């Protein structure tokens, strides 16, 4: 299919749809994340991977959650399929832009302040942000040979282009959050940051996370086995987070 991208790109009036996959998030950050997202997105689309707690109830509390699909059976070990289902559900709403967010991520204030500028333009079709892995709490992020995702950009925001070919690699875990085919389109690397709090937990929960990783990927087929092992480092290198002005 031949696409005239110049006609598809809108420089004003774009709507922003956040997408998220969740599973058993009660007691975590889901409520805070949905509340924060509701302050700057137009709609939220969620796939619930067969949660057995109050996750779905939390999602329904937020008016901007326009679509919530709860799967009857977990597809946790087929992450590519979860990504695909979430993407297709989002596309069915005819969005303008899609923002992929995890249930433990918060965009810094500067990112939210500049979000509309990133949407309302006709020069690029995706945006990369810098993600920071907070560690052991909410004051410091980790930075060492195994934990440095913030040194590069992660594509989390894409313009929806009807008819454009998309694909996800068939990986059980660590699947890219958005279709890889978007990499062929012009993008923008924003010096804006995202706080990832998935590792901002105590020692006991870090150990539980380590055990889960080793159980589902013991040979490091889908990820870095050395990074898995480094989860248990007793003295990781941490850097204090500093807020930046708007």
UniProtKB/TrEMBL annotation:
Q: Spell out the Pfam families in the cross-references.
A: Glycos_transf_2 (PF00535)
Keyword Protein biosynthesis set for record: no
GO molecular function terms listed in the Swiss-Prot or TrEMBL record? transferase activity
> Which Gene3D superfamilies does the entry link to?
Spore Coat Polysaccharide Biosynthesis Protein SpsA, Chain A (3.90.550.10)
Residue ranges occupied by any Glycosyltransferase 2-like domain in the UniProt entry: 30-158
Is Transferase one of the keywords? Answer: yes
Instruction: Look up the domain of life of the source.
Output: Bacteria
Keywords tagged on the record: Transferase
Task: Please state what the protein is called.
Answer: Glycosyltransferase
Q: Which organism is it from?
A: Paenibacillus dendrobii
């Amino acid at each position: 299919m031949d696409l005239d991208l110049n006609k598809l790109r809108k420089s004003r009036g774009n709507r922003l749809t956040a997408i998220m996959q969740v599973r058993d998030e009660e007691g975590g950050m889901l409520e805070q994340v949905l509340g924060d997202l509701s302050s700057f997105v137009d709609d939220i689309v969620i796939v619930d991977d067969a949660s057995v707690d109050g996750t779905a109830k939390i999602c329904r509390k937020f008016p901007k959650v326009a679509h919530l699909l709860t799967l009857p059976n977990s597809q946790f070990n087929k992450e590519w399929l979860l990504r695909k289902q979430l993407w297709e559900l989002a596309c069915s709403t005819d969005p303008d832009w899609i923002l992929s967010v995890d249930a433990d991520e918060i965009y810094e204030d500067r990112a939210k302040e500049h979000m509309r500028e990133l949407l309302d333009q006709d020069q690029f079709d995706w945006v990369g942000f810098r993600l920071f892995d907070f560690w052991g709490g909410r004051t410091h992020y980790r930075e060492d040979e195994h934990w440095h995702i913030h040194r590069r950009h992660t594509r989390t925001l894409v313009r929806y282009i009807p008819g454009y070919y998309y694909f996800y690699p068939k990986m059980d875990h660590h699947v890219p959050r958005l279709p890889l085919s978007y990499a062929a389109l012009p993008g923008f690397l924003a010096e804006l940051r995202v706080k990832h709090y998935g590792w901002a937990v105590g020692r006991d929960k870090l150990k539980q996370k380590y055990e889960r990783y080793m159980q589902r990927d013991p040979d490091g087929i889908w990820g870095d086995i050395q990074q898995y092992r480094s989860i248990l480092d007793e003295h990781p290198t941490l850097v204090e987070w500093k807020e930046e002005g708007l």
